Amino acid sequence: MKRGILLLSALMMSLLSLSFANAQTGVESGTPFGHGNDSIQCRRNITFYKTYHQSKNYKDAYDFWKKVYDACPAASKDTYIIGAELLNWKADQAQTPEEKKEWTNQLMEMYDTRIKYFGDDADNGIDYILGNKISDYMRLMGNESDYNMIYDWLSPVVKEMGAETDPLALSQFAYASMAKMFMDPSLKAKYVDDHMMVDGYYDQKIKEYQAAGNNNAVEAYSNYRQNAQAMFAQSGAASCDIMEQVYGPQVEAHKADKEFLSKTIALMQSVGCTESDVYFAMSEHLFNIEPTADAATGIANKAFKENNYSRAREYYEKAIDLSTDQSKTGEIYYMLAVMSYKQNSYSAARNYANQAMANKSGFGAPLLLIANMYAATAKSVYPDDPILQRIVYCLAVDKAQRAKAIDSTVASEANQLINTYSQHFPTKEDVFMHPDLNAGATFTVGGWIGETTTIRTR
């Protein structure tokens, strides 16, 4: 009898083992497809949902997809690629906000499940998955998106992966930081730090791909970087006060860090903080490490501010010699023009202004400077003829109109000058009393100016 009980127990264990082998899902077994019949069913359901998905029958595709997702979530990345499409479709088909939110939550959970099973994928890992998750979240939630939550999703990943973070995720991280700053202005300094970090990562990858000759990747990262920089420029965070608050305490610690100094100086130049003590100090440190155009410009700007014009000219000229960027070269020539104007060296100032425009296309500020110089010297050009003095203002207006035509950023200032200087045009009576003048005729202004204009009256 004892022997029979033992045989019966062995038979039951065998049957249980067979049943376990023939009916165990991927979730239960920790395998991609499961075992036995469950494995067969998982593969069958994969075929069904893919077939229905391919024919755009999302309703039936979803039913079979859900079975795969619940039973064998580790079977394939396709489960999540197609699943994102199906769940987005479900959310878009929702009849009420509550229903849409429920489908959105399911979609977010699906991305979390993908991270669980495929987050360590070499090509499309956690950062890539989060980038897609956040894109879908922001699209579906719109103005109700929680940027604190997005920031918290991404922050540990960006911290761990650095420059290797997917570029879309980096872009979303910077955007979330900016959105947090809009909600809480006390976070401006944090956003500046986050932006600089992301910009540095983009710059690093661009250089790596340039060295590798991967032009497509260079273009992609460059586009991400340009978008982030444009976003930063328009954010309102880039005030000189914030720049000094963020980078002032870091000057001493980074005085030998060429890369940090170069990037920070470029950032401060981009937002117009070129009269800051922090900018001046960093420029001096960078020039001591390696003379660059930006560093020389910073030293020159400091000397200019202190009315040390000889030192300013020396370093502006060094900056021009070191510059490899024509646009920046044009801006340096403009600073030389402004300095010469302040010294009443008008011919030199105009020469520098023309060189500024030759190097930087669409640069309107030098034309406005020339307009101001012409107006300022009208009396000295024709000290004994008030009517001819007034014609000089016609030439000044020509310059302001040209500036506005080529550079929309100076349109407001140009319009002010046009309105002001037009009031100085000669009257019809003035022209009538001057026998050699006619309204609408050309006139060459003499003296140091030597340019032609059209006589207009007010």
Describe this structure in words.
Strand 2 and strand 3 form a beta hairpin. The protein has helices at 2-22, 26-29, 36-54, 58-71, 78-93, 97-118, 126-141, 147-161, 167-183, 188-212, 215-234, 240-247, 258-270, 277-289, 293-305, 309-322, 326-342, 346-359, 365-376, 378-381, 386-406, 411-422, 428-432; strands at residues 23-24, 442-444, 452-454. It is built from 23 helices and three strands. The longest helix has 25 residues, at 188-212. Helix 13 packs antiparallel against helix 14 (277-289). The protein has a two-stranded antiparallel sheet. With 458 residues, the chain is mainly α. The N and C termini lie far apart (128 Å). Mean pLDDT is 90; it is low at 4-22.
Write a brief caption for the model.
The protein is mainly alpha-helical. It has 23 helices and three strands.
Category from helices, strands and their pairing: mainly alpha
* Biggest beta-sheet profile: 2 strands, antiparallel
Low-confidence segments, ≥5 residues, pLDDT <50?
4-22
Number of E-state strands: 3
Strand order of the largest sheet: 2-3
Q: Averaging pLDDT over every residue, what do you get? A: 90
How would you sum up the global shape?
elongated
Looking at how many chains there are and whether they match, the oligomeric state comes to single chain
Radius of gyration: 35 Å
* Percent strand: under 5%
Helix content: over 70%
Q: Distance between termini?
A: 128 Å
Helix-strand sequence: HEHHHHHHHHHHHHHHHHHHHHHHEE
What is the number of helices? 23
